[in-house]
Specification:
Elements: E1 2-3, E2 12-15, E3 20-22, E4 31-36, E5 41-42, E6 52-57, E7 68-74, E8 91-95, E9 101-104, E10 113-122, E11 130-136
Parallel strand pairs: 5-11
Antiparallel strand pairs: 1-2, 2-3, 4-6, 6-9, 7-8, 7-10, 10-11
Length: 137
């Protein structure tokens, strides 16, 4: 069942799975892009200096508000997200702002290695995911 949600922009609808889809344009061209924070290096055991920021944009480059975004840690280093992470400890959920952006700051592991932050937008149709590559030194 698809319903309008008055807390979201008038151009969006929310289906029964709480996924946001632009109204009347289900096959629109949306992209998930890295906005800031990629290719960072940080000292082991500390938060990275900058947040990992993504943006969900439409075909005209305008940000899409209200899209659920999931950040998931991968890689050779055991990084964590600040509280409150999901129950598995390696995921972070956010919702895009009025500019279409969402962010999180991973904490480096206590040893050197590569941290990959895999990001997906939970919308229909879903744009291709993106990956941040971070280094703990």
């Amino acid at each position: 069942m698809v319903t309008k949600d008055s807390s979201l922009p008038s151009t969006t609808v929310v289906d029964s799975n709480q996924q946001v889809t632009p109204e009347g344009n289900a096959m629109a061209d949306y992209s998930l892009i890295i906005h800031a924070g990629n290719q960072q290096k940080g000292t082991a055991g500390t938060p990275f200096a900058e947040p990992c920021v993504v943006q969900v944009i439409d075909a005209d480059g305008a940000g899409l508000e209200g899209v659920a975004v999931r950040f998931t840690l991968r890689g050779s280093a055991a990084a964590v997200f600040p509280a409150p992470p999901s129950l598995d400890g390696i995921s972070w959920h956010a919702v895009t702002s009025s500019t279409g952006t969402a962010a999180t700051i991973p904490i480096t592991p206590f040893f050197e290695g590569t941290v990959e932050v895999h990001v997906t937008a939970e919308m229909i149709p879903a744009p291709s995911p993106v990956d941040f590559t971070l280094i703990a030194t």
